[in-house]
Amino acid sequence: MEVVVLLGAPGAGKGTVAERLRQTGRFRHLSTGDLLREAVRQGTPVGQEAEAYMKRGDLVPDEVMARLVEERLRAGADSVAYLLDGYPRTLEQAEALDRILQRCRGRLPHVLFFDAPREVLRQRLAGRRVCGTCGAVYHVRNLPPRREGRCDRCGGALEQRPDDREETVERRLEVYQRQTEGLIRRYEMCGLLRRINAAQSLEGMLSDVDRHLGAAGDAGQGAGSCLPRGL
Ligand code: AMP
């Protein structure tokens, strides 16, 4: 099994890029935010534990996340390639992921880092709308649906995520930056980090991603994990 980690602040466009890559049939998209929101909707034990953290824009505890991710990775066949979106978010989670991959005999050939200035992120999050039925993501200006307020895919009503409101956005961006700086350094030092300019158009991002993943086919540097030596 192969895992490509998608790193980037909320609003950087990871989810949208992941959806396009999923449509190529080459990857499965595993978004921890989506998994958690689904768990909350269904009222599962994980959902009940996670809900309060998510409402505040805080991170859900590491043990809960590790269990959730391992369970999902194990559910697929060995030949599956995953886009892991939203995990890891901290150094501790990155170490947990290395252990999970070791146990599942998975490889981590690339970490795609979607890099954008904060002002761009704020603007993207303020305009983001999500289909309440199927989860498809739109933007009022950059990626509008064909019919206003309605999902192109299933016709469901488009909504603003409660944590995309202004009060929570600042906190999420703050938490993200504080938690992930070390993570970016870590993956950079072990040669897995591929920087994507996330301030450009979706098409531009997709072509950057393609270039990196194309080069990855041979996965010369695909060590399977990032050993924290020297950090
Ligand atoms: P996202 O959709 O990725 O912005 O995630 C929404 C919320 O889910 C976050 O604000 C966190 O509360 C929670 N969450 C998602 N992924 C993680 C993670 N890897 N670790 C901890 N909490 C997470």
Overall number of strands: 8
How many strands, what sense, and barrel or not for the largest sheet?
5 strands, parallel
In the predicted model, the low-confidence regions spanning at least 5 consecutive residues are 216-223
Shape: globular
Structural class determined from secondary elements: alpha/beta
Bound molecules: adenosine monophosphate
Element-by-element helix/strand order: EHEHHHEHEHEEEHEH
> Level of helix content?
40-55%
Report the end-to-end length measured between terminal Cα atoms: 27 Å
Name the quaternary structure: single chain
Mind telling me the C-alpha Rg? 17 Å
User: What is the mean pLDDT?
Assistant: 89
Please state roughly what percent of the residues sit in beta strands, choosing from under 5%, 5-15%, 15-25%, 25-35%, 35-45% or over 45%: 15-25%
Separate helix tally: 8
Strand order of the largest sheet: 2-3-1-4-8
